[in-house]
Amino acid sequence: MDIKTLTTPLSEEAVASLNVGDFVLLSGMIVTGRDRVHKYLFSELPLPDEIPFELEGAVLYHCGPIVRREDAGYRLIAGGPTTSQRVEMYEWRIIKEYGLRGIIGKGGMGEKTLRAMKEAGCVYLHTISGAAVYLADRIKRVVDGWKVEEFGAPEAMWLMEVEDFPAIVTMDASGNSLHKGVAEKSMGVYKELLGGGA
Amino acid sequence: MLKLKDGIVELYRKVATSLPSDVENELKKAYAAEEEGIAKEAMGVVLENISLARKTSRPICQDTGVPTFFIRVPRQLSQEEVRSIITAATREATEKVPLRPNAVDILTDRNSGDNTGRNIPVIYFEETGEHVLTIDLMLKGSGCENAGQTYKLPAEEIGAQRDLDGVRKCVIDAVFKAQGRGCPPYTLGVGIGATKDQVSVLAKRQLLKRIDERTGDERIIALQARLLDELNRLGIGPLGFGGKTTVIGLNIDYNHRHPASYFVDVSVCCWANRRGRLVWG
After folding, report:
1. Do B41 and A23 touch (CB under 8 A)?
2. Which of A40, A133, A187 to mutate to test the interface with B (most CBs of B within 10 A)?
3. B2 pLDDT band (50/70/90 cuts)?
4. Do residues B209 and B253 touch, judged by C-beta distance below 8 A?
């Protein structure tokens, strides 16, 4: 299997060169964000300088990790992806407002996000659902957290450094989606199995 | 009762960091069945993750779920006492294993930080004439919890009438709607009966069974076998990447129903089907 390596921040050209089905290994800084972060960014639209981490060209990871607070800072214990579809109503605006170039998650996202990705130049990177320990071993360190107290550790925005973090491009910047393809194919079988009902 | 608390903390550790052998075996079969491609690559990482979690005693998945206990309690033992020991054990396990703190207050949106809160952990008691206390713990991630569905038959939109064929259609519909969002290959629990609350718990209880269990009425066993074949024809595949294995097993159980009601609940569990038992006494 061909492997493409990527380093953050991502350029528009790097994103444009990725296609659905590509296997990638990502290195550099990434940020996390899930339900609370999305609701907050979407509704409050804080200015970039009110957010302690750079989001322009950034890769946002849908992840609520297990993080242990230690004297020297934070230690990541487990950090796999969370279901991306829950932030479908927010993501399009966040991609466009803050200039995200990549979303890491699981399960894929819908039409709104796919359209925003095409318009703004962004890709969806599906990592390995549930592989929390395997993926934690590819997160070198947790640099810092934002809104840790207010949102709680699982829902804070964390800045992390990753090395050779594996993912598969399942939604690209040209408007292609592996998830759409799988859903359409299964729809045919679904209709057949339900007989005249569906 | 200090020792029971330690036993429950250990149960938490075991359930969070390792998979039951029947589940792991089915996942190995799923890996072997896939053709070269991203679904097979992903299943390879899943299997590596399982063994890495066990070896290093870290949670298989960062979502350690809403701790859910199914307890068979002897008559002479106080349920209230068992509940308070579980609460203490949950706090300790959250710190020690560690588990992800997952209990969020509805009104303040604050995370309690220790997996305890209003009716969290979830505990179902059943009194028995036995002399031992049997504690089943389920740590089910909420990505797949969200993928569950409840149906009220008849459901015309999926052509489901009030019979086992209607139940079959509900299960197919639930998996089709879940697609890859709840981390397949899935294990399913299905409950049929009179009330909405009852079938939800019944469905979830089915996830405690070994996935290769084949006991009970032959009509149910036949439906399970047929569904396993049909669901895997949907082609959603490991992690939703498309492929041969979407569901590794399912168990169905039923209660009597009301003449006016026919509820079906489908509980969807991710590949990391984490359950374990402690027998005390």
Report:
1. yes
2. A133
3. low
4. no
Contact assignment for A133 to B49 by CB distance below 8 Å: yes
Q: Is A126 a catalytic residue?
A: no
pLDDT tens, residue by residue, A93-109: 999 999 999 999 999 99
pLDDT, tens digit, for every residue of A116-170? 999 999 999 999 999 999 999 999 999 999 999 999 999 999 999 999 999 999 9
Residues 32-71 of A with CB under 8 A from B: 36, 63-66, 68
Of B135, B63, B69, nearest to B99 by C-alpha is B63
Q: Is the pLDDT of residue B215 over 90?
A: no
Beta pairing class for A123-126 and A102-105: parallel
Check residue B159 and give left, alpha or beta (phi > 0: left; psi -120 to 50: alpha): left
Instruction: State chain B's mean pLDDT as an integer.
Output: 97
Q: Report which DSSP code applies to A156.
A: S
Tally C-beta pairs within 8 A across A and B. 177
Tally Cβ neighbours within 10 Å of residue A88. Answer: 16
CA nearest to A65 within chain B: B62
Put simply, whether A78 touches B (Cβ < 8 Å) is yes
Classify domain A3-193 by CATH number: 3.20.130.10
How far apart are alpha carbons A113 and B89 in whole angstroms?
42
- Domain limits, chain B: 143-271
What value does the mean pLDDT take over residues B159-172? 98
Nearest Cα neighbor of A4 from A135, A117, A80, A19 is A19
- CA-based angle B91:B270:A101, to the nearest 5? 95
> What angle is formed at CA B88 by the lines to CA B62 and CA A142, rounded to 5 degrees?
30
Check CB contact under 8 Å for B101 and A152: yes
DSSP reduced 3-state for B133: strand
**pTM (global) more than 0.80:** yes
Contact list, B43 vs chain A (CB under 8 Å):
none
Tell me the shortest Cα–Cα distance from A186 to chain B, in angstroms. 5
**Which of A38, A62, A126, A179 is an active site residue?**
A38
Q: Among all residues of chain A, which has the CA nearest to that of B270?
A: A130
Enumerate the H helices of A26-79 as residue ranges: 35-44
